[in-house]
Amino acid sequence: MLGFACICNTLKESGRFKAVTVKTLLKLSEEEQEKKLRAAAVDNLYNSLQILKWCKENNILMYRFSSDLIPLATYAAHWHWWEDADIQNMCSKIKDFVQESGIRISLHPDQFCVLNSDKPDVVQNSIKHLEYLNKLSNMLGNQILILHTGSKAGGKQQAMQRFIDNFKLLPKDIQSKLCLENDDKSFGVSDVLYICETLGIPMIFDIHHYNCLNEEENLWDLRQRILDTWKGRRPKMHLSSGKASFTDRHHGDYINDADYESALKFAGEDFDIMLECKQKELALLRIREKYPDRT
DNA sequence: CTCGGTCAAGGATAC
DNA sequence: GTATCCTTGACCGAG
Q1: CA A13 to mean position of chain CA atoms
Q2: In whole angstroms, what is the distance from residue A261 CA to residue A263 CA?
Q3: What is A2-290's CATH number, 2.60.120.10, 3.30.420.10, 3.30.70.1350, 3.20.20.150?
Q4: Which nucleotide is the nearest neighbour of A26, by CA and C1'?
Q5: Strand B close to A153 by CB, under 7 A
Q6: I need a surface site. Which of A6, A101, A108, A162 has the fewest CB within 10 A?
């Protein structure tokens, strides 16, 4: 099964999301602030639902929500977005649709969510961010939050231990949703597998990150260990192509055939594949056209 | 209206 | 310590 993330180009006006800047917010009264934030959030949730409906119509059964659906969610502390009737209403519509359509959903915190930072206030902010995404997840019926290990300050081993220690401080509800993904700069497949096995959480295998950063591990040796971290749930993996070259960390617009084929080979019958490329659903449709039997 | 500098949030690096 | 880049897509003020 293939999926894509966030933006849907095809839907034009309802395929992307609104943001609110702090600068703008500070010019407004508290009442106007809430009005602006609510309007953007409701709009973003509505657009997410439109995208999900489009996915269903096009038989795309996996989608990752934008993590910015509720603008400035942890900034505007006076606004309890989760208690807002319009937002609750939109969320339950999405939750119902997800349930009846069977679309597999997930959420991916932004890069500033660094659970293993060596700075205590960054860890606290990261936990706040995870609490926001967890709350939203429960309202949307999402069970998967995908995180990177984070910083390697102080050395990789220490940084991995900080991740493990800080993970244990999280509420169980968040812990049960977290999955860890290998990245392209600091923590490779072996590192992330170690953490996942230690904590008993699923590992997201990102094949392009592996191509950019690896210890020449034999993927077939690691494959079963990755599968095992899912404990019977259906595993997911990520796929993208380098923009300028095979190991360019920048994501390309589309997926190269060779990259798709090697991902397919790795996935076999066992993994769902989330596409991470600039052209989002268009890349998925292009793959489907090229490989009609294998998507 | 369009254009482009700017934007909550972190990290890594070079000096 | 501080300056600067990385990196995303939308905001928003200038023209």
Answers
A1: 22
A2: 5
A3: 3.20.20.150
A4: B8
A5: yes
A6: A101
* Closest of A148, A151, A173, A172 to residue A162, by C-alpha: A151
Helix (H) or strand (E) holding A226: helix A219-229
Instruction: Determine contact, residues A231/A268, Cβ cutoff 8 Å.
Output: no
Residue nearest to nucleotide C7 (CA to C1'): A250
Burial A39-63 (b: 16+ CB within 10 A, else e): ebbbbbbebbbebbebbbeeebbbb
Q: Tell me the percentage of chain A whose pLDDT exceeds 90.
A: 90
Give pTM, 2 decimals: 0.96
Cβ count near A137 (within 10 Å)? 21
Q: CA of A23 vs C1' of C12, distance in Å?
A: 10
Structure letter (DSSP) for residue A18 = -
Is strand B less than 7 A from the beta carbon of A151? Answer: yes
pLDDT higher than threshold 80 for residue A295: no
Residue–nucleotide distance: A3 CA to C11 C1' (Å): 29
> Any residues with CB less than 8 A from the CB of A131 and at least 6 apart, and which?
A74, A171, A174
pLDDT digits (tens, 9 = 90+) for A40-82: 999 999 999 999 999 999 999 999 999 999 999 999 888 999 9
Give the distance, in angstroms, between residue A113 CA and nucleotide B6 C1'.
22
Phi-psi region for residue A46, left (φ > 0), alpha (ψ -120 to 50) or beta? Answer: alpha
Domain boundaries, chain A: 2-290
Rounded Cα distance, A256 and A264, in Å: 12
Helix A30-57 and helix A85-101: axis angle, to 10°?
10
Protein-to-nucleotide distance from the CA of A203 to the C1' of C13, whole angstroms: 44
Neighbours of A243 (CB within 10 A): 13
